[in-house]
Amino acid sequence: KQEVTQIPAALSVPEGENLVLNCSFTDSAIYNLQWFRQDPGKGLTSLLLIQSSQREQTSGRLNASLDKSSGRSTLYIAASQPGDSATYLCAVMSGGSNYKLTFGKGTLLTVNP
Amino acid sequence: DARVTQTPRHKVTEMGQEVTMRCQPILGHNTVFWYRQTMMQGLELLAYFRNRAPLDDSGMPKDRFSAEMPDATLATLKIQPSEPRDSAVYFCASGFERGSDYGYTFGSGTRLTVV
């Protein structure tokens, strides 16, 4: 059974700092890994999706990396802003034909002005 | 932008009552997922459908939960009878598969409170 762990559970940084969020998964037989953002009381917004054959994806100030063999992914946020404050969730799509997403419990990020 | 529509957004009900949550997936998406989110457990997969056929509902308490997809534009999740421990946010997501490309869009969720 796939398990996804995110560290740290919460992170508070001053505005302008670069930061890294970590995600690990137990079963390396994945199709892809996705990072989501969730604002309080809202749904999930997809930020980056990395296919299993890829090593990283970039979008603006966000960069996500994937090391499938070690079961790890990182989300790097450059020059953080107060508007980046949210919960960041990592999810993996397991191998096989069922395309299910297994989520970590998220990292609550607070960027202080 | 295409979006997944969930209704109602909020529901407060008394223990023992039936609750029905609805989801309108994005037109053209062939998979629909139901997730439940709580502080303790995070996001848990309850059930999912591909091409309207139920593929996996192993995460769902079968004695009280049921999920259906009567047509391509509507997915429902029912709880009967509801219990306080069912209080959570229920998300629907629809997805597509094109070759090796997959995409998911989540709805805004239904926040259920059972008192």
| CA-based gyration radius of chain B | 14 Å
* Cα distance spanning the termini of chain B: 36 Å
Q: Can you count the helices of chain B?
A: 0
- Portion of residues in beta strands of chain B equals over 45%
The largest β sheet of chain A comes out as: 6 strands, mixed
Shape of chain B: globular
Order of helices and strands of chain A: EEEEEEEEEEE
What is the tally of beta strands of chain B? 11
Distance between the termini of chain A: 41 Å
Low-confidence stretches of chain B: none
Give the low-confidence spans of chain A: none
- Number of H/I helices of chain A: 0
- Give the helix/strand class of chain A: mainly beta
Question: Which percent range describes the beta-strand content of chain A?
Answer: over 45%
Overall body shape of chain A: globular
As a percent range, the share of helical residues of chain B equals under 10%
Give a written overview of the molecule.
With 113 residues, chain A is mostly beta strands. Helix content of chain A is 0%, strand content 59%. In chain A, the strands form 2 sheets. In chain A, strands 2, 4, 5, 9, 10 and 11 form a 6-stranded mixed sheet that branches. In chain A, a hairpin with a 5-residue loop joins strand 4 and strand 5. Chain A is globular and about 45 Å long. The termini of chain A are far apart. The model of chain A has no long low-confidence stretch (mean pLDDT 93). Chain B has no helices and 11 strands. Chain B has strands at residues 5-7, 10-13, 19-24, 31-38, 42-50, 53-56, 65-71, 74-79, 88-98, 101-106, 110-114. In chain B, a hairpin with a 3-residue loop joins strand 4 (31-38) and strand 5. Chain B is mostly beta strands and 115 residues long. At the A-B interface, strand 4, strand 5, strand 9 and strand 10 of A face strand 4, strand 5, strand 9 and strand 10 of B.
